[in-house]
Amino acid sequence: MIAEFNGKISEDVKEGVFAFIFAVFFSFLKTFLIEIARSALCQWALDEVVQAQM
User: Fold this and answer.
1) Do residues 3 and 10 touch, judged by C-beta distance below 8 A?
2) Which element (helix H / strand E) includes 29?
3) So where does this one cross the membrane (predicted)?
4) Which of 26, 48, 45, 27 lies closest to 37 in space, CA to CA?
5) Calpha distance 40→49 (Å, rounded)
6) How far apart (Å, rounded) are the C-alpha atoms in residues 50 and 36?
7) CA distance 54 to 30
8) Which CA distances in Å does 21 have to 6, 41, 43?
9) Neighbours of 24 (CB within 10 A)
10) Digit-coded pLDDT (tens) for 1-39
C-alpha cells in the first residue's frame, strides 16, 4: 500500500520508526551488557589466577 502524504505523519509510519529505534537501542544495549559481563568474567578469572599463584 502506498501512503499518501497530506502533511501529517501516519500512525503506521510513527509506529514503524518507533519500532526501528527500539530495536536499534536494545541491540546496542545487549551488546554493551555482554561486553560488561565478558570484562567482569575476564577480571574474575585473572584474579583467580593471581590468587592461585600466591
Assistant:
1) yes
2) helix 11-53
3) 16-34
4) 45
5) 14
6) 21
7) 36
8) 24, 30, 33
9) 10
10) 566 666 677 888 889 999 999 999 999 999 999 999 999
Distance CA 13, CA 36 (A): 35
Q: How far apart are CA 17 and CA 11, in angstroms?
A: 10
Query: 43 is written with which cell numbers?
Result: 577480571
For residue 12, give the C-alpha cell.
Answer: 503506521
Q: Does the model's pTM come out above 0.90?
A: no
What does the pLDDT read at residue 4?
A: 65
